Amino acid sequence: xxxxxxxxxxxxxxxxxxxxxxxxxxxxxxxxxxxxxxxxxxxxxxxxxxxxxxxxxxxxxxxxxxxxxxxxxxxxxxxxxxxxxxxxxxxxxxxxxxxxxxxxxxxxxxxxxxxxxxxxxxxxxxxxxxxxxxxxxxxxxxxxxxxxxxxxxxxxxxxxxxxxxxxxxxxxxxxxxxxxxxxxxxxxxxxxxxxxxxxxxxxxxxxxxxxxxxxxxxxxxxxxxxxxxxxxxxxxxxxxxxxxxxxxxxxxxxxxxxxxxxxxxxxxxxxxxxxxxxxxxxxxxxxxxxxxxxxxxxxxxxxxxxxxxxxxxxxxxxxxxxxxxxxxxxxxxxxxxxxxxxxxxxxxxxxxxxxxxxxxxxxxxxxxxxxxxxxxxxxxxxxxxxxxxxxxxxxxxxxxxxxxxxxxxxxxxxxxxxxxxxxxxxxxxxxxxxxxxxx
Length: 439
Known about the structure:
Elements: H1 4-10, E1 18-23, H2 31-38, E2 41-46, H3 80-87, H4 104-112, E3 130-134, H5 145-160, E4 175-179, H6 182-195, H7 200-209, E5 217-220, E6 229-235, H8 259-267, E7 270-278, H9 290-304, H10 320-331, E8 335-340, E9 351-356, E10 366-371, H11 373-376, H12 379-394, E11 399-403, H13 404-409, H14 411-435
Parallel strand pairs: 1-2, 3-7, 4-5, 4-6, 6-7, 10-11
Antiparallel strand pairs: 8-9, 9-10
Helix pairs in contact: 1-2, 5-6, 8-9
């Protein structure tokens, strides 16, 4: 693993010492920087996302900034990814999205950037993935102090409950703060540093994550590509002017021709939650450049969660077998939801039946997959479903699979097995909750 500069500096120029070179985050690499690596290998794999950040000199270091009063051209250029898409014949598009454990976190980008082509997976919880916090205040150039104070209050509460005690502490969550400009970033860093003197929880949290691959950091918009955290805190910074009460429509790099790609990076960094702190409403933003329009739509989505129909899709059953299982459970008093998932699209994955239970709170006790004759006839489908089940279980789902042949031969026996599994799951959760009463 080397940077382009290190390749040029340390590897011999003669011959081709490597069979393959893999260029990652290729959307951010200029062709001239990639040449030194490409020249030293027989084959190349160029990996990147044309919907994410392009190469740019803007904000390449921690002290970068901009004049908000200007409609700026941030100097974005063509990447090695752009060039390779026009030159290479063999292309592969990765469609399965693994990062977001709550589907709301990827639904917006899936709709507005990827034409609903991503294969996403439903979350077992019905709790919101995006929590929007509106701060009624006026905005002064480059810094929003009221927004910073509200964010820090929520951040410290989060830190208190998520100190990582040991490497097996899977309940603790990592986090990062992202701001729309470097001035707000530095302002938040200073305020957090001052608060840490009287609030030891802050240093305890930071040190507990410092040796991991997901340390606590405060970054600006241009510096987060390639990062991921369990939870992302976002300060949008901008807000209404004190004199006019109107939000100026100058949003720095967001107004540039690739501003929407910067926002796409920001919206897809979190695994579990985004805590959005903003002094703007969607109606405060006027139609204009694509980046500005995307910001407007995202604020509206965060406020209303109306991008999709929610965890209950309202779709009917995919088979009479599903309807039969549903009817049996419903007749015996279970709350069952067919076709659990969020959003639309040909690659949308849904769980056949989701079972709710009063003791479980917000979310699903388990998901039921009904496998019929078509499933049994396809080895590839079985292989794909095994992988899907592993992914769903990694999201927190409990999956119970019913084989249609077994059900048809002895439905009462198979139904009783299902009921016993549900009861066992309820007992297990109740016992876990009583032993962890602070959860």
